[in-house]
């Protein structure tokens, strides 16, 4: 008689949950590391246009090498693909540089509190630019998001208008990026990872001339010398770290997106912001007042409410992640 060994193998569902858990943990960890190094670099070298450009350049280079060495298969693209990618890349570029400018002016935690208001932008843009209407609970869920962000902003000890506007512009740009991407990716066979690689490359081409015009090599050279004299030769590794981690966290988020629904992704993205806010407050000793933390908590709670009320209507709402899923 065969031995009756009672080993409980995880069923498919638990294996899938474990896989998603690993993706999420990796994504958040990479994002926290990116945010820490990004802020360390910006503190010593306040040139966000260049650091944004370097993040895109590093990601583009990593993907070109991966394609050339066949670590990853290069996508088959045509002119039409690049044409439809263009508006996405413009919005991605604006959203990326605006977030980086914001983080160069205010605490990382403050930028991410304002960025947790992105769902409110999604609904308002869809309502006023696209003429879409939503059920009342969706609008009501925006109240804590907007109210919480407003409370966090007015009680922020290191409030700076450029920092605030940068995060707001980033929210708006990323909502348009989502909408354009939904159209652009429909029916295309390019994987999420390669779509993001192409997006990085096109954004790099768009951003480079603007970075040169806004900041330029003279400022960069002087700033770099100053940063190296303050930080030491390790400064270059900080720049490498922020660039590499920027690409890696985005890439892992795209890999997780193949596995999960937009709703799960949206909740994951909010949880990511909580990790970044908490980690950056601890690492940078960011001063916060109880009322300021309350505003952040209300805004984040509002994002969860928004996710919940969208369970029924999610498919019609562009969120920070919907565009990744438009292939599905
Ligand atoms: C950027 O630099 O693009 C922002 O830090 C992006 O932020 P997010 O991926 O958390 O929206």
TrEMBL record:
Transmembrane segments: 20-37, 49-68, 136-155, 161-180, 192-214, 234-255, 276-306
Location of this chain's protein in the cell: Plastid, Chloroplast membrane
UniProt keyword terms in alphabetical order: Chloroplast, Membrane, Plastid, Sugar transport, Transit peptide, Transmembrane, Transmembrane helix, Transport
Organism superkingdom: Eukaryota
GO molecular function, one term: phosphoglycerate transmembrane transporter activity
Keyword DNA damage: no
Recorded topology in the membrane: Multi-pass membrane protein
Entry GO terms, CC: chloroplast membrane
Domain spans labelled Sugar phosphate transporter: 18-307
Protein name: Glucose-6-phosphate/phosphate translocator 2
Upper taxonomic lineage: Eukaryota, Viridiplantae, Streptophyta, Embryophyta, Tracheophyta
Coverage span on the entire protein: 78 to 405 of 410
């Amino acid at each position: 008689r065969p031995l009756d060994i009672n080993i409980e193998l995880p069923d498919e569902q638990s294996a899938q949950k474990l896989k998603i858990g690993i993706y999420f943990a990796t994504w958040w960890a990479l994002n926290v590391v990116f945010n820490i190094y990004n802020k360390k670099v910006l503190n010593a070298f306040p040139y966000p246009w260049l650091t944004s450009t370097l993040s895109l350049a590093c990601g583009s280079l990593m993907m070109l090498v991966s394609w050339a060495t066949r670590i990853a298969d290069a996508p088959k693209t045509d002119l039409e693909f690049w044409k439809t990618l263009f508006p996405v890349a413009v919005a991605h570029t604006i959203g990326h540089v605006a977030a980086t400018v914001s983080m160069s002016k205010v605490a990382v935690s403050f930028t991410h509190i304002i960025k947790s208001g992105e769902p409110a932008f999604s609904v308002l843009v869809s309502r006023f630019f696209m003429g879409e209407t939503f059920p009342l609970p969706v609008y009501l869920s925006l109240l804590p998001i907007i109210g919480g962000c407003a409370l966090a902003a007015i009680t922020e000890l290191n409030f700076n208008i450029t920092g605030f506007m940068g995060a707001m512009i980033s929210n708006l740009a990323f909502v348009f990026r989502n909408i354009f991407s939904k159209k652009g990716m429909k029916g295309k066979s390019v994987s999420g990872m390669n779509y993001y690689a192409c997006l990085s490359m096109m954004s790099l081409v768009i951003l480079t001339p603007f970075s040169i015009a806004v900041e330029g090599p003279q400022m960069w050279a002087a700033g770099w010398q100053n940063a190296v004299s303050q930080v030491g030769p390790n400064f270059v590794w900080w720049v490498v770290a922020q660039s590499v981690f920027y690409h890696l966290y985005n890439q892992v988020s795209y890999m997780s997106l193949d596995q999960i629904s937009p709703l799960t992704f949206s909740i994951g993205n909010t949880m990511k912001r909580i990790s970044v806010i908490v980690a950056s407050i601890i690492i940078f000793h960011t001063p916060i007042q109880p009322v300021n933390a309350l505003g952040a908590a209300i805004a984040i709670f509002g994002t969860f409410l928004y996710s919940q009320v969208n369970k029924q209507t999610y498919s019609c709402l562009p969120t920070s992640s919907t565009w990744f899923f438009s292939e599905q």
